[in-house]
Amino acid sequence: DAKTTQPPSMDCAEGRAANLPCNHSTISGNEYVYWYRQIHSQGPQYIIHGLKNNETNEMASLIITEDRKSSTLILPHATLRDTAVYYCIVPTNAGKSTFGDGTTLTVKP
Amino acid sequence: GAVVSQHPSWVICKSGTSVKIECRSLDFQATTMFWYRQFPKQSLMLMATSNEGSKATYEQGVEKDKFLINHASLTLSTLTVTSAHPEDSSFYICSARDLGGLAGTGELFFGEGSRLTVL
Hints:
Chain A is mainly beta. Chain A has no helices and 9 strands. Chain A is globular, with a radius of gyration of 13 Å. Chain B starts with a strand and ends with a strand.
């Protein structure tokens, strides 16, 4: 399964967009990129996933570069409750995943 | 939508006892499930792959006799921490992917986690 690299931490002002980058340069052609977030003492919460097209749902947007080697998760209007650790993973087809250290996003008032 | 559920969500036990944690896939079948361990302020670390009807596959450095995994049905995998010690205190998380049939979404689901504290 492909490794991912994310910045360790980011700050964002409440109400502004939070853009969280992820590098996955060893991703294979049929592997999806998944984003999860984890709030203290809880299991990872699914946010969004994509293969090569940009995706949007009620939580976020996912922008994947044309070469698929990196992606950006966008939280359009960050709130204090979005403060969490965000993980970008590229699981195998069976679902096996290697987690990096993720990005700790702190949304500030 | 499909969900993965863990039980118990937290457990406290005495050193030397064994503890069983269940991971269930709700409304989808999972031939493969995954178990992770997470220590405070660290990321999730894959422990093992649970395979329905066959032996689990353990990651390097994870003791198979210490962490017994049983995947007896397509919706249930169990992790038993045998002869638990304080250093086994951790947050244990399972996951499964919904690959089933035409309705399979391919989505990867994680359980809520089980916090084990060994006294």
